[in-house]
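Work Package 4 report. The design task specified in the project plan requires that, given a folded chain encoded as structure tokens, an amino acid be chosen for each position. We show below one input record used in the internal validation round.
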């Protein structure tokens, strides 16, 4: 692996920029965690939960017209990739989306499910912090490799 030869001033600049970025990322992480804690405290009051319930009931229907898509089974003839077909010849699917999801989960290995749950539980700020730390480690190893090259040669 050929790393670029940089002057010590450049490495100092990279190290300085990276340390500032890590500090800002840690600050963002602290703000995110504080926001979640204070938000959970706020939603525990009965006044807020009553307002949320009132908002949800009013947003579901306005003037008696319900919002949202409605599932309508297809009827008659449909144009498909194989030409015109009558929907009565299509295979029947009686499975609900929940049963399809359960089937898919049962097909996945347990290790994959645990990894997806762990990664899915991370906040975006934590994921960004991990990326920044990885870049920092690469920069540290690269600077050590650079110093070894200058000492040997």
């Amino acid at each position: 692996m050929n790393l670029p030869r940089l002057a010590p001033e450049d490495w100092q600049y990279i190290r300085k920029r990276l340390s500032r970025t890590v500090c800002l990322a840690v600050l963002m992480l602290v703000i995110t965690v504080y926001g979640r804690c204070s938000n959970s405290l706020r939603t525990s009051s009965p006044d807020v939960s009553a307002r949320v319930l009132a908002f949800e009931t009013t947003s579901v229907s306005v003037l008696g017209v319900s919002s949202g898509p409605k599932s309508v089974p297809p009827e008659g003839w449909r144009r498909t990739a194989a030409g015109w077909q009558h929907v009565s010849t299509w295979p029947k699917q009686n499975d609900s989306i929940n049963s399809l999801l359960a089937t898919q989960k049962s097909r996945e290995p347990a290790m994959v499910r645990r990894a997806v749950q762990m990664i899915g539980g991370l906040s975006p700020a934590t994921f960004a912090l991990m990326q920044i730390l990885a870049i920092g480690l690469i920069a540290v190893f690269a600077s050590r490799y650079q110093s070894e090259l200058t000492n040997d040669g």
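The CA atoms of residues 70 and 134 lie 46 Å apart. Validation will be extended to a larger panel in the next phase.
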